[in-house]
């Protein structure tokens, strides 16, 4: 509101150098109407003599960019979508939407977004403190996601059977997905129904057997579980868009064609 008055006073004081308030297109048209002989400049036009620019920051302290992207994906593709799906499907109306927790986690993440921080061009101490904020944001996001998955498990009707271990696979994408899913299971040798620790099959919710492969097999530390083996396995899961599918681990011999 002050600019028109400033322009008026200027033009009264300096009539030989008139000012005019207008838009950028008008300015360009006025310049070109005089058919001036102008120099041409090409390239990124970021000379540091006249512009304080932070160049080369895309690769500076790459771990910052990697952690930031991973945590953004955690909230965008897992924590928030799953919480929203459960909130909309909760037939018991007991699920407390974790808005406050997610907001707190995202605030810690955003506090790492000032340009000197996210660009990685500040002093070492600044970026050491960023690690802690990344940790807090990631821990909150993972905890909310874990609790949401546990609540989702309560919403699903699963036949009570100690010989059937359910696996829930969640697809955060808005389209049907067929991809590799990983799971870890600790098989107690004396567990009922499991004659051998490696004798189990994977079934889908229709009872079809699913091929899988061992990625890693290791004995659990004795201070945790005596006489147990941990199996890290992979199988091909097919899950609907923005949804989940149930699979089950049951006693039995592994499919021969599983590789």
TrEMBL record:
Domain Glycoside hydrolase family 38 central: 52-134
UniProt-listed InterPro entries: Gal_mutarotase_sf_dom, Glyco_hydro_38_cen, Glyco_hydro_38_cen_sf, Glyco_hydro_57/38_cen_sf, Glyco_hydro_b
An example molecular function term from Gene Ontology annotations: carbohydrate binding
A Pfam family that the UniProt record links to this protein: Alpha-mann_mid
Upper classification of the organism: unclassified sequences, metagenomes, ecological metagenomes
Gene3D superfamilies, per the entry: Glycoside hydrolase family 38, central domain, Golgi alpha-mannosidase II
GO biological process: mannose metabolic process; oligosaccharide catabolic process
Coiled-coil ranges per UniProt: none
SMART domains: Alpha-mann_mid
The UniProt record lists the keyword Protein biosynthesis: no
Protein name: Glycoside hydrolase family 38 central domain-containing protein
Key words, A-Z: Hydrolase, Metal-binding
């Amino acid at each position: 509101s002050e600019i028109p008055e400033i322009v008026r006073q200027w033009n009264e004081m300096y009539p030989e150098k008139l000012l005019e308030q207008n838009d950028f297109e008008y300015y360009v048209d006025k310049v070109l109407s005089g058919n001036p002989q102008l120099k041409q400049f090409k390239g990124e036009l970021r000379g540091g003599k006249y512009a304080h620019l932070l160049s080369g920051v895309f690769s500076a302290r790459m771990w910052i960019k990697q952690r930031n992207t991973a945590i953004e994906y955690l909230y965008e593709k897992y924590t928030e979508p799953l919480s929203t799906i459960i909130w909309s499907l909760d037939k018991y109306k007991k699920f407390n939407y974790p808005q406050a927790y997610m907001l707190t986690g995202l605030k810690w993440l955003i506090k790492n977004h000032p340009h000197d921080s996210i660009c990685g061009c500040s002093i070492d101490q600044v970026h050491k403190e960023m690690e802690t904020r990344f940790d807090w944001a990631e821990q909150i996001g993972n905890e909310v996601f874990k609790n949401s998955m546990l609540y989702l498990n309560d919403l699903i009707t699963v036949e009570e059977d100690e010989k059937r271990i359910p696996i829930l696979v969640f697809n955060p994408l808005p389209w049907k997905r067929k991809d590799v899913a990983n799971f870890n299971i600790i098989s107690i040798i004396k567990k009922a129904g499991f004659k051998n620790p490696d004798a189990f099959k994977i079934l889908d919710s229709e009872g079809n057997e699913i091929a899988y492969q061992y990625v890693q097999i290791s004995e659990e530390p004795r201070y945790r579980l005596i006489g147990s083996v941990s199996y890290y396995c992979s199988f091909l899961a097919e899950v609907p868009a923005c949804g989940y599918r149930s699979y089950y681990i049951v006693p039995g011999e592994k499919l021969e064609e599983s590789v």
